[in-house]
Amino acid sequence: MHLFVTGTPIGNLDDMTFRAIETLKDVDTILCEDTRTTRKLTNHFEISTPLRSYHDFNKEEVEDHIIEEMKEGRTFALVSDAGMPVVSDPGFELIGRMQRENLDYVVIPSASAFTMALVASGIPSYEFTYFGFLPKTGRKRKDKLIEVMEHPFTSVLYESPHKIKDTIAAISNIDPERNVSVSREITKKFEQHERASAVEMADMLGERIPLKGEFVIVVEGAPEIEETFDMPVTEHIEVLVGEGMKPKQAIKAVADLRGLRKQDVYDEYHKK
């Protein structure tokens, strides 16, 4: 086997598996995002295997060397800073290259923050979509959030402590009654999972929920057509426009969320 895609704990080192420890000890090199972070893990488990940086900023530069070394018989483990490699982290390009080169690899599982948050949310999980991190700023971020809110199935997002309040506020402005779960510090001492309507969740952040640690947001799927909204159509549109949407986008979003014809919503808005 040339590569072991190896999951590591997302917070609590006791979650490290025996198989993962033995793998990291046996391979020739460990590929990791940040050698300082992975060194804490390897020191804890007395793993002396050499570390090599493999991250978004150097992956194209080092990929050829890694492939050549694999062909010469060297073995590698790919880890991320925490959890499963490749999930919102670099690595899929290397695996794709290995597939094209007919090189063998295996995946060694571990916890993943988004699956644990989904389980803890109490929100339906038979069908869900993992969206990862939203775009950082601007129109792309707003458009992606609209996509999430229009999505018929449960959505899972990652968010930073610096943007969590703004993201939940934006969700609340689109649909204040939508069920939302927020998880933080998963597997750590201050692990927390809270579920509430979006408008209630917005009030909890910074009060009941400290703005510390990485967050996972689980959003209930868009309501069915028969669900009603407390605010009038025109007010709903104005809220979205106030969030930065263009009126045309807001009209489409409101029509989709409420199960109405776009033209009817347009006419209602423009006769106000």
From TrEMBL:
Domain Tetrapyrrole methylase: 3-199
The protein's Enzyme Commission number: 2.1.1.198
Reaction catalysis annotation: cytidine(1402) in 16S rRNA + S-adenosyl-L-methionine = 2'-O-methylcytidine(1402) in 16S rRNA + S-adenosyl-L-homocysteine + H(+)
Family annotation (InterPro entries): 4pyrrol_Mease, 4pyrrol_Methylase_sf, 4pyrrole_Mease_sub1, 4pyrrole_Mease_sub2, rRNA_ssu_MeTfrase_I, SAM_MeTrfase_RsmI_CS
PROSITE patterns reported for this sequence: RSMI (PS01296)
Alphabetized GO MF terms: rRNA (cytosine-2'-O-)-methyltransferase activity
Catalytic class of the enzyme: transferase
Family per record: Belongs to the methyltransferase superfamily. RsmI family.
Role according to the record: Catalyzes the 2'-O-methylation of the ribose of cytidine 1402 (C1402) in 16S rRNA.
Name assigned to this protein: Ribosomal RNA small subunit methyltransferase I
Gene name as annotated: rsmI
